[in-house]
Amino acid sequence: MDLHIVSPREQAQYYDEILEMLYMSDDDFIPPLSARSSTTQKDLTSSQKTEDGILQYFEEMKSQRFMVALEDGKVMAFVSYRENYVNGVITEAYTPNIYLSTLIMRPEARGKGLTKTMYSLLFKEYEDRFICTRTWSTNIAHKKILDFYNFSTFATLPDDRGKGIDTVYFMKKPAR
């Protein structure tokens, strides 16, 4: 598997495959990606899908950086992220940072340790920064990986994604 961080000038060559993966993974997310308008959306209580929801999400995502995992030239997984992202939860105290907004893997690439490999490359590349992300409280698989890498929970927004489904923010301190 060829893993690399994509420069902004070369990322457009991967857009078709990334968009395909967004559609393929729509219902893997809470709320579905088609019920969102961006990767940093604050109101996540709606699960109402819209016809152009994934396209809106994707258009906003294009302004971010990407890491891709390629196998025989095909995108098998990707991570999109923002640099020095600040919102009402991630404050200036957590800068400089990398905010991981979206991580998607093709089904045939799952269960092979690829997510851990991708995180390891991000830690190496951005060892001097906080690594921040968020997920939903019932996303056990992702939470296990974050626990493995000693991410700390630094905020929980109760029922933020519907009754009984919290948004949980995680952070890993810089290695410095």
Q: Can you tag this structure with a few keywords?
A:
28% strand, alpha+beta, 7 strands, Aminopeptidase, 176 residues
List the helices and strands and how they pair.
Elements: E1 2-6, H1 15-24, H2 53-61, E2 65-71, E3 74-83, E4 97-105, H3 114-125, E5 130-136, H4 140-148, E6 152-157, E7 167-172
Parallel strand pairs: 4-5
Antiparallel strand pairs: 1-2, 2-3, 3-4, 5-7, 6-7
Do you know the CATH architecture?
A: 3-Layer(aba) Sandwich
Q: Could you give the count of β-strands?
A: 7
Order of helices and strands: EHHEEEHEHEE
Q: What global shape is seen?
A: globular
CA-CA gap between termini: 29 Å
Tally of domains: 1
What is the CATH H-level superfamily? Gcn5-related N-acetyltransferase (GNAT)
Continuous helix count = 4
Helix fraction by DSSP (H/I, runs of at least 4): 10-25%
Strand content: 25-35%
- Average pLDDT across residues? 94
Strand order of the largest sheet: 1-2-3-4-5-7-6
**Measured on Cα atoms, how large is the radius of gyration?**
15 Å
Unreliable residue runs: none
* Structural class computed from helices and strand pairing: alpha+beta
| CATH domain class | Alpha Beta
Describe the structure.
With 176 residues, the protein is an alpha+beta fold. It has one domain (2-172): Gcn5-related N-acetyltransferase (GNAT) (Aminopeptidase). It has four helices and seven strands; from the N terminus they run E-H-H-E-E-E-H-E-H-E-E. The protein has helices spanning 15-24, 53-61, 114-125, 140-148; strands spanning 2-6, 65-71, 74-83, 97-105, 130-136, 152-157, 167-172. Strand 2 (65-71) and strand 3 (74-83) form a beta hairpin. It starts with a strand and ends with a strand. The mean pLDDT is 94.
